[in-house]
Amino acid sequence: MKVPSDHDLQEMAGQVAEALMRVGGRMATAESCTGGWIAKVCTDVAGCSDWFNGSLVTYNNAAKEHLAGVSTALLQEHGAVSEPVVLAMAEGAVQALDAQWGAAVSGIAGPTGGSVGKPVGTVWIAWGSAGNMQAERHIFIGDRDTVRRHSVAVALHNLLKTLQLQ
């Protein structure tokens, strides 16, 4: 799988912008391992304040709880890198930032932090509309930058596919 370039990511963000403007919605993100990179490429698009409300960078569990409203019980039961948590992050961002659409990412970018069940490169990505989020697990191969670039690209791509169905 080709590693997305800065140009690729900016192009995807532009396509998401066009789709959001077409459907009349606004988006928000909650990001862990990407550290705000989705927000960065979205805000690289001129006029982004018309469709992008903001992002919650929720790198540790306390931030996930306090900013995105993820419950302590959910984090304890499933761990930060899990489907239930990334779905809760996406819903929390949409609610906290008054948006209709959202995306969230939580993963292990490496080079450390992996385990047998969740190796380095494991990333859960959620996207969708308020009350209708979906998520999928990926295992990206490569260094920290590569894992993060792929995560941003997949989040934008999946949100774009969903918006195009509207």
UniProtKB/TrEMBL annotation:
It comes from the Bacteria. Residues 10-163 form the CinA C-terminal domain. SUPFAM superfamilies: CinA-like. NCBIfam families: PncC_domain. This is CinA family protein. It comes from Salinispirillum sp. LH 10-3-1.
